[in-house]
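Anyone else keep sequences and structure tokens together like this?

Example one:
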Amino acid sequence: GILARECAKKGIPVWMTAEGGFLSAVEVATVLALLRVIDNPLREVHLLALLHSPIFAFSPDRLANIRADHPNTDFYRAVRAAAAGGDAQCADFLEKLGGFRRLAVTLPADALLRRLYDETGYFTLVQAMENGAQRRANLLLLLEYARGFESAGFKGLPGFLRFIDRLDPEA
């Protein structure tokens, strides 16, 4: 697309999926799921995508068991109930999410992204994947979008997510 051509002109490697732009690339979609869950953990589709991602590595069977054990509530509350029942993986997720949510209140979107890249190890992980250099470039481009958003005078995670939604409603 246009974005890929413009990035190529400037020597910026960008890896795009066949379905869409860089916002649809799995590594960017994973980080956007993380941001959306930080903003609102009741977003079930994003929560499930995040939990299943390499960041938290819940298996599909594990997620199904959490749902089966707590069928009459939303998935976030099911995770909370599992943690309260002694589930260490759920407790670890909730502890990290709580810290990320506290950061989101005080940090600009670009600084939050940098912290998330560092604290989750995801930025390093994607570099070890197939097309690692392009995946890294996509995460850096997302960071540039956040920087541009903040430098234009806009602030905060909710505003940045609305900005991303306007760029690509499918993201």
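And example two:
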Amino acid sequence: QSALFLTQNPGILYLPRCAADEDHPGDATCWRDVVRDVASIAWRRAPSAEEVERYGATLDTLAETRPKLDVIRAAIQGVLLSPHTPFRIELGAPIPEGGDPTATQPLTPAETASAIAYAVGDAPPDDQLRAAATRGRLETPDDITRELRRLLLMERRREAMVAFYRAYLRY
């Protein structure tokens, strides 16, 4: 139902032009763009090239027998049904060559963005926080402090934090 709602209300989700344009027939590039855009929001990180290709290949097969809107809905459904959507998965940065596999690994920038956003406001990262992660601006303590201060100035984030502490402290 979520996929149906999103395709019937295109202003809610920013779909690639090929998906929103009724005159565009849809093609392999379009399906992958839809997966990339929807997954980036739903998973709070950019999907890997392998993930985009895996979903894209399935959509290519579906597109042989189904209309464009069905393929777009299937792309959205597939992304929303992934375990990456409801769960915050924190695997950390890849272990460097010769590194200790038992050592704690630092979070990736996308994982750091999610951790900050959920800790401060019980919500996924906003566009500005996702952009900071993408641009490598969540790697130092100063970077993280800057984003925390920005988020704490947002009324809805403060309200979520107050609600958490009231519930936690039973106040």
